[in-house]
Amino acid sequence: MTKDNPGFIQNLNPRDRETKILECDCGWKGTFAEGFETWDDDGESTVCPRCLSTVAQIWFPTIQEMLDSGDPSEVRHAELRDSAH
Length: 85
Hints:
- With 85 residues, the chain is an alpha+beta fold.
- The chain has two helices and six strands, in the order E-E-E-E-E-E-H-H.
- The longest helix has 13 residues, at 72-84.
- Mean pLDDT is 83; it is low at 1-7.
């Protein structure tokens, strides 16, 4: 799975993690936070607590997206993140 080709998994805005109701093929419904959350280098996922299928993904911004944002705190975070790799 990639950011440009997420497949059946919903891409979610971080602001919606507590409010948007997600639905799994097995019938489970709940928010991102009500699922089992997992993290990796690219973002966060939530897994259905009933069938363990990945339901939604929140992608972390790329370093370039952070640099292009114009937000000084995002630019600094990008510089720190880039120097850690």
